[in-house]
Design a protein that fits this description.
The chain is mainly alpha-helical and about 160 residues long. It folds into two domains: about 50 residues, no CATH class; about 70 residues, no CATH class. Helices cover about 65% and strands about 0% of the residues. It contains nine helices and no strands.
Length: about 160
């Protein structure tokens, strides 16, 4: 059976209508999988306050984890930001324990210059990633990342790697 021009136009019209109607369907901003992580079951109605908290955490963290979202919702966004602006008051033992295993992080800069291998760079990258994922001091970690990117020299540039 051969398709006619009329069949092609009819199917194209139906496909376009389905795409347009699909785009008009309201979505849960964080998706069903993440909603299930946050409380399980079907998504709850999305409030404007919840959306604002989600958006703020998306900008002030490396991605809102369910426990971080719950804490910011419980405290209120303003109080959560105030807490993040005083990072020394936040218990961050979990992240500290995860990075404690990296020996080169505690070396004196003069001793670090003697290491001269990729181990120091790998440990620094691993510790940075672990802190970004596990630290409760998320705003501090985001700012450390920003300023490190802004002012630092790449560790790939020969002897510049040892000027830290």
């Amino acid at each position: 059976m051969r398709a006619t021009r009329r069949d092609f136009l009819s199917l194209s019209g139906l496909a376009a209508a389905a795409a347009i109607l699909g785009a008009c369907t309201p979505r849960d901003p964080i998706g069903r999988a993440q909603t299930a992580l946050l409380g399980g079951g079907e998504p709850t109605p999305w409030s404007q306050a919840h959306a604002a908290t989600w958006r703020a955490l998306g900008r002030l963290t490396f991605g809102p984890r369910p426990e971080e979202l719950a804490r910011a919702t419980a405290l209120g966004l303003r109080d959560w930001i105030e807490e993040q602006l005083a990072p020394d008051g936040i218990d961050d033992r979990g992240a500290d324990l995860r990075v404690r295993r990296f020996d080169t992080l505690s070396l004196d800069p003069s001793a670090l210059a003697e290491v001269r291998d990729d181990n120091a760079r790998r440990e620094l990258q691993s510790a940075t990633l672990l802190r970004a994922i596990h630290s409760k001091r998320q705003l501090r970690e985001v700012m450390v990342d920003f300023w490190s990117d802004h002012f630092s020299i790449s560790t790939q540039k020969g002897d510049c790697a040892w000027l830290r």
